[in-house]
């Protein structure tokens, strides 16, 4: 090969390798296309009407479908897209495994100043989870939340991040929704509400 072409070819190869590496490392954070999200967000009056007429009695999370449903008994009230832990298949067993728990828990408290906007805490681990982790000699982990997908400081700099949802799973086991959807969930779901998480 002619030497005058060798350096440009090496530069192009280095750029290609760096591009592939960057894409693989950060692919999970690429935003989902807004056209793929079919949520018509509610006004304050609509939220109040739902709270009065069909209060939320259970939150259902379908991991394989990547959706969160707010239920009034058997009636599906609201559905939101969501993302999971970075290794989502199967039930959470230990701290750091990247899995989102499966089973029946309670949304037992909330954090208005969460690292990711706002959050509702899932009562994982329960006694069964603790026993299983103890048998394995590991910590079951904890701090599983439903939370937003962008931090407050990110939204302050770029308000359009209120509708940001990464394309792929990325959390350490939490359930992440768009911040705009977290606002609705925050207003519609009371502490003490049952959350059922399915595979």
TrEMBL record:
Recorded superkingdom: Bacteria
Pathway connected to this protein: Cell wall biogenesis; peptidoglycan biosynthesis
The keyword Nucleotide-binding is assigned to this record: no
Origin species: Acinetobacter guillouiae NIPH 991
InterPro entries named in the record: LD_TPept_cat_dom, Transpep_catalytic_dom
Keyword Transferase tagged: yes
Protein name: L,D-TPase catalytic domain-containing protein
Active-site feature positions: 147 (proton donor/acceptor), 174 (nucleophile)
Protein keywords: Cell shape, Cell wall biogenesis/degradation, Peptidoglycan synthesis, Transferase
PANTHER family linked to this entry: L,D-TRANSPEPTIDASE YAFK-RELATED, LD-TRANSPEPTIDASE
GO terms, molecular function: carboxypeptidase activity; transferase activity
Domain named L,D-TPase catalytic: residues: 57-198
Family recorded in the similarity comment: Belongs to the YkuD family.
Gene Ontology terms: biological process: cell wall organization; peptidoglycan biosynthetic process; regulation of cell shape
């Amino acid at each position: 090969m002619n030497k005058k072409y060798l350096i440009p070819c090496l530069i192009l190869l280095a750029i290609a390798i760096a591009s592939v590496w960057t894409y693989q490392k950060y692919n999970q954070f690429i935003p989902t296309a807004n056209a793929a999200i079919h949520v018509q967000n509610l006004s304050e009056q609509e939220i109040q009407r739902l709270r009065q007429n069909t209060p939320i009695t259970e939150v259902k999370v379908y991991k394989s479908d990547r959706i969160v449903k707010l239920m009034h008994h058997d009636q599906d009230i609201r559905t939101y897209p969501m993302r999971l832990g970075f290794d989502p298949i199967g039930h959470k067993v230990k701290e750091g495994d990247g899995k989102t728990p499966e089973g029946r828990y309670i949304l037992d408290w909330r954090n208005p100043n969460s690292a990711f906007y706002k959050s509702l805490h899932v009562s994982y681990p329960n006694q069964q989870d603790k026993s299983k982790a103890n048998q394995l000699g590991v910590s079951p982990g904890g701090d599983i939340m439903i939370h937003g997908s962008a931090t407050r400081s990110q939204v302050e700099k770029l308000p359009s991040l209120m509708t940001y949802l990464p394309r792929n799973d990325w959390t350490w086991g939490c359930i992440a929704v768009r911040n705009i959807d977290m606002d609705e969930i925050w207003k519609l779901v009371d502490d003490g509400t049952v959350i059922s998480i399915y595979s």
